Amino acid sequence: MFPEITHIQNFIATNQVSFWLGKTRPINEKLVPAILKIRNNTYTIHALDEYEDLNYYNPILNFIVVFRSIAIIDESEDFLMWCKLESLDANNHKLLDYYKGICNNIEGINNCFPNNKIDYFVSDLDFQLNAGVMQFLRR
User: Which domain of life is it from (predicted)?
Assistant: First the structure.
């Protein structure tokens, strides 16, 4: 087994993490609404899911997709940079409202992780190239 999977499983168990698809209308055709419950807090995360990983109930894949989406927002300097990174239309006011809302919650999410920094435990290279642990999980 990949150590990344073990780290994610341990994090999910320790922090009572669960996911399910959101029933709200997507704020953008590229984003999928997913509900994240971590500890006793619930968040709606609009995730870029180009491989349609969220369509399968796989908590490990869900973890990676959802927390990667949050980490990209956290690491972006501002709304325009996030839109550019995700190839989103910065003129969409719903995206701006979502961005502001999630930015207000990121500190609380970060606090659940060691070093107070979101970690989805998989390299971006593996994620984007469908290699390593990502290829294993998507089989």
Answer: Bacteria
- Beta-strand (E) ranges in 55-107? none
Angstrom distance (rounded) from CA 10 to CA 44? 23
User: Looking at beta carbons, which pairs linking 42-51 to residues 24 or more positions away fall under 8 Å?
Assistant: 43/102, 43/105, 43/109, 45/69, 45/70, 45/102, 46/98, 48/86, 51/130, 51/138
CA distance 55 to 75: 26
Beta bridge partners of 48: 31
Place of tokens 């990344």: 4
Give me the residue spans of the domains in the chain: 3-137
Q: Give helix 59-75 / helix 93-110 axis angle, nearest 10°.
A: 100
Query: What are 19-53's pLDDT values in tens digits?
Result: 999 998 999 999 999 999 999 999 999 999 999 99
Alpha-carbon 96 to chain mean position: 17
* Mean pLDDT estimate for the chain: 95
Q: Which of 73, 64, 67, 65 is nearest to 103 (CA)?
A: 73
Q: Any idea which residue has 């500190």 for tokens?
A: 107
